[in-house]
Amino acid sequence: MPNDTSNTKNNINTYHRADAPKHPVPLHLQEFSLKLRGKSLFSGLNLNINPGEITTLMGPSGCGKSSLLAAISGTLSSEFFVSGIICLGDFDLTILPPEQRHIGMLFQEDLLFPHMSVGENLSFGIPFSVKGKKARAELINQALEDAGLSGFANRDPATLSGGQRARIAVLRTLLSQPSALLLDEPFSKLDVELRERFRAFVFRHAKAHQLPTLLVTHDPDDAQSTGGRVLKMSDLNN
Predict the structure, then answer these.
(1) pLDDT for 189-233, tens place per residue?
(2) 10 Å Cβ neighbour count for 9?
C-alpha cells in the first residue's frame, strides 16, 4: 500500500451536501473583534476568503489564532466576548450552533476514533442526508481511492502510519461536505518530509473542492506553501 500522497494529484473527487450552496461561496468576517477577560485580542477585523483561496494568519502561541478559528466554527468558550459578523456568502453564521455552520476543521491531532475502523471513522463524517449503507459505502470507498488508500476501510486506525492517519482525518472532514475549511496548525507535529507531502495533499483538496480556507500557523514554511495571502496577527490589533 502507498505511504505517501503523491499519487493523488490528478485523482480528486468532490462531495456536496444537498443543502449546500449551488455554487462555492466566500467566507467573510465583518468588523470582527475578540476579547478575553476584557483584553482585546484583535478588533475590527475584515477578512474575505474566496472559494479555493487559502489565507494564512501567522503569530506566536497565545496570540488568539486558534480562538479566532473557534469563533468562526462556533466552538469558542463562553469566557470570550465576540462581536462582528461571520458569513458564508450571504448566509449569516454568527449565532448558529457549530453543526449548522457547515465548516470543516483540522487540528494538530488527527482525532480518529480508536474504537472504530477506518471506514467507520469516515462514515461518521458523512451527513445523515446520505441514506443507505450502499450509498455511504460508495462515498467511503471513493474517498479512500482518491487518497491512495483503497482497501483500508476495515483497517484499525492503530495499524496506520502517521501520514495515513492524517489523510483519513482530511477525508473525514471533506466527507462532511463543508462549505469552508479551517486549519489549526495541522502540520506542526509531522516530520519535515511528511509535512511537505501532507500540506500539498490538504491544499490540493481544498482547492479542488473550492473551499475558502483559513490556516493559522507560526511556521513561515506553512504560510509560503499556500501560495496565498499571509497576514500577521500582530497587524490585526487596533
Answers:
(1) 888 888 888 898 899 989 999 999 999 998 899 999 999 999 988
(2) 10
Cell numbers given for 208: 479542488
Longest dimension (CA), the chain: 53
- Separation CA 142–CA 137 (nearest Å): 8
Choose among 147, 119, 235, 226: nearest CA to 181: 226
Q: Which residues lie across from 213 on neighbouring strands?
A: 54, 181
Instruction: Measure the CA–CA gap between 18 and 109, rounded to whole angstroms.
Output: 29
Alpha carbon distance 18, 37 (integer Å)? 41
3-state secondary structure (DSSP) of residue 103: strand
CA nearest 235: which of 73, 56, 85?
56
Three-class SS of 25-39: CCEEEEEEEEEECCE
The answer to whether residue 8 scores a pLDDT higher than 70 is no
- Which amino acid makes up residue 228? G
Spatial distance between the Cα atoms of 41 and 80, rounded to a whole number of angstroms: 10
pLDDT of residue 13: 46
